[in-house]
Amino acid sequence: xxxxxxxxxxxxxxxxxxxxxxxxxxxxxxxxxxxxxxxxxxxxxxxxxxxxxxxxxxxxxxxxxxxxxxxxxxxxxxxxxxxxxxxxxxxxxxxxxxxxxxxxxxxxxxxxxxxxxxxxxxxxxxxxxxxxxxxxxxxxxxxxxxxxxxxxxxxxxxxxxxxxxxxxxxxxxxxxxxxxxxxxxxxxxxxxxxxxxxxxxxxxxxxxxxxxxxxxxxxxxxxxxxxxxxxxxxxxxxxxxxxxxxxxxxxxxxxxxxxxxxxxxxxxxxxxxxxxxxxxxxxxxxxxxxxxxxxxxxxxxxxxxxxxxxxxxxxxxxxxxxxxxxxxxx
Amino acid sequence: xxxxxxxxxxxxxxxxxxxxxxxxxxxxxxxxxxxxxxxxxxxxxxxxxxxxxxxxxxxxxxxxxxxxxxxxxxxxxxxxxxxxxxxxxxxxxxxxxxxxxxxxxxxxxxxxxxxxxxxxxxxxxxxxxxxxxxxxxxxxxxxxxxxxxxxxxxxxxxxxxxxxxxxxxxxxxxxxxxxxxxxxxxxxxxxxxxxxxxxxxxxxxxxxxxxxxxxxxxxxxxxxxxxxxxxxxxxxxxxxxxxxxxxxxxxxxxxxxxxxxxxxxxxxxxxxxxxxxxxx
Lengths: 330, 280
Prior knowledge:
The complex is a heterodimer of chains A (330) and B (280).
Chain A lengths: L16 E3 L2 E3 L3 E3 L6 H8 L2 H4 L6 E2 L16 E4 L2 E4 L7 H13 L6 E5 L4 H12 L6 E5 L15 H14 L4 E4 L7 H10 L4 E4 L3 E3 L16 E4 L4 H12 L6 E3 L6 H9 L4 E4 L2 H4 L3 H11 L32
Parallel strand pairs in A: 3-14, 4-7, 7-8, 8-9, 9-10, 10-13, 13-14
Antiparallel strand pairs in A: 1-2, 5-6, 6-12, 11-12
Helix pairs in contact in A: 4-5, 5-6, 6-7, 8-10
Chain B lengths: L12 E11 L2 E8 L11 E6 L15 E4 L2 E4 L5 E7 L4 H7 L6 E8 L11 E7 L4 H12 L5 E6 L2 H4 L10 E4 L6 E2 L3 H10 L3 E6 L2 H13 L4 E4 L15 E4 L2 E4 H4 L2 E3 L16
Parallel strand pairs in B: 8-9, 8-12, 9-10, 10-11, 12-13
Antiparallel strand pairs in B: 1-2, 1-7, 2-6, 3-4, 3-7, 5-6, 13-16, 14-15
């Protein structure tokens, strides 16, 4: 296990951090479902591995059974953002373990696998099977889906979240990250419930619910009806939720939501994030994660310089937390 | 089909606009892409944005880059290529790109996707283009001429102003327009049917709006002619990250950006894509 994460110094300095005991070369992750390293390698070849944009790779969410995803159209550009209705297409657990995981193991960074189940039994099977694989360093629970047994969105309800995490915690030897949905009444309460049930970290935010209408017909544009909003359009909402959650838990917080620059990343860390993730910005530039990491390291001062990657540190002073870095947000 | 894919550098880079000129209803932008490969494959595409002032227009867009097949690529002496892109102003992104002038930066990622593959056996190439879909057929045409093939070119446009893009071919083409203001009135499928029924065995290469592509796909299926169709779909990233640009095939959804954009017609039940292209 790595020692307490060092302050992130100027360019060229050691940027390494540890997240739940997993040593990382830097603090920049990808948001689940925003980067397909296997497809990107088809487009960019092995240069992608030599200049890999992230310090920890988070897989697209896998489910027990294969999913085709939602009917197109799946995308809508909004002011400074993107609305999507993708529907978690994936090969299913067996396909992922047999085909994708060996390829993801070739990446130069540790791997976090995101899983989602429609019942607690499904989740248990997913977590047990993924946990058994040495290529995997962490497991993330995508709880932004309905539990078909209760009809509740797992991540929208503290009790639902706690019940799911409690059982999985016992089955899982690896650090367990709970990906929070911003579409909850009180994300801080859900985060605290996850922590109480044994989660090792929380990540947020997932996309915000949104909708677009066809300009002529006024019918929903997206094949799935409604979708999830991401990009700079949601950054202020995400920052507030990260701060609220960081004030509610002692486990590390993985912050994300519209981060497009090192200055944005520094704000999320000042708000209490231990590490940050880049999502939609990678669509505009596949190397965005690397650029943001460089910019972050280049900032002379980006807050306290101490970020909670090992947990149990005092909550940040949120009254001053977001104004401490040198550069204004872009 | 052998995959026609030149790899892209794994980051966005800036090219310098050398020239922007009107070609009828279109704008042809030439940019010096010193940091990219010299040999993109016909049918591959680039994600384009302006290097400055992308976004913040009257609709607070564009935000995402826009996908464009390159029209022509000429290797640069110092490395990389001079790239031609044909634009039509159909939304905030294409509008902003059309305002670029010489010396300004063009941000790009590419070349991306799989381009046109070689014709099967001794079949003769027939190129069918509609509107802005003419663009990737230009470099394909040049390449076929270079290897000694004699491609037939059949193009369709909405109007005479759009049809001025025909001049870019510098060779004789069969032209039709919707309104009959240039060439013969009607759709490209009429001259295509005449060629397929009356000429030697052909391979069809097509790019254009979904209804045209679907008509070409159906005709080629009926005539048992192999067809390579360059599809268009709204994209966010261009390299398989967002899963947004899928189209249905006989084997399920595929991502146009990494599994296409050039797809064998036989893989499709229909080339009509729900929601059509992007938001311009």
